[in-house]
Write a structure and sequence with these properties.
Shape: globular
Distance between the termini: 9 Å
Order of helices and strands: EHEHEHHEHEEEEEEEEHH
Strand order of the largest sheet: 2-1-3-4-12-11-10
Radius of gyration: 15 Å
CATH class: Alpha Beta
Structural class: alpha/beta
Largest sheet: 7 strands, mixed
CATH superfamily: Class I glutamine amidotransferase (GATase) domain
Length: 185
């Protein structure tokens, strides 16, 4: 299986290395022609405004929106924001891919100095993950909550889409990526 990682901005390399350690072949995605080659996609953490502006500049939004309608996609941190149907705190003109029936709030856990690590349970397994300028999931529509922190949802699944407020790729957590890869086959 060939998995794409959106490589416009953010920690795409960490996702690439983690997916490869789990046995996936990975292609960095910067163009629509590359997106058409992969069976699944990861939208990494980073800065959602910058990611949005770059996706717009590269003309990727139509292809990304079509992709997430049909193929497995995982979004972490900024990637969760990009997959959210509604975003609180969006910059004027900022575009999103959508697809997850949730409302997220950008940087809701605080700025860079408020970043932290925490243990979360993901599908019955406890993992240490990083929250870096993390978004909060404010409301969940049709999505299923698959991880919580202090009773708040921090990861969701809806059909072929997975989204998380946190970065498991930074702390070495593999459960979320394993669930993602299982959804491909």
């Amino acid at each position: 299986m060939l998995v794409g990682v959106l490589a416009l901005q953010g920690d795409w390399r960490e996702h690439k290395l983690l997916l490869e350690s789990l046995g996936a072949d990975v292609l960095p995605i910067r163009r629509e022609s590359e997106l058409s080659q992969v069976q699944a996609l990861v939208i990494p953490g980073g800065e959602s405004t910058t990611m949005s502006n770059l996706a717009k500049s590269f003309g990727l939004f139509p292809a990304l929106r079509e992709f997430v309608n049909h193929k497995p996609t995982l979004g972490t941190c900024a990637g969760l924001i990009m997959l959210s149907d509604k975003v609180e705190g969006a910059v004027a003109g900022q575009e999103f891919v959508g697809g997850l029936d949730i409302t997220s709030s950008r940087n809701a856990y605080g700025g860079q100095t408020y970043s932290f690590e925490a243990d979360v349970e993901i599908a019955g397994q406890i993992e240490r993950v990083a929250f870096i300028r993390a978004p909060r999931i404010l409301a969940v529509g049709k999505a299923e909550v698959i991880a919580t922190l202090d009773g708040e949802p921090v990861a969701v699944r809806q059909g072929n889409l997975l989204g998380a407020s946190f970065h498991p790729e930074i702390t070495g957590g593999t459960k979320l990526h394993s669930l993602f890869l299982e959804s491909i086959s």
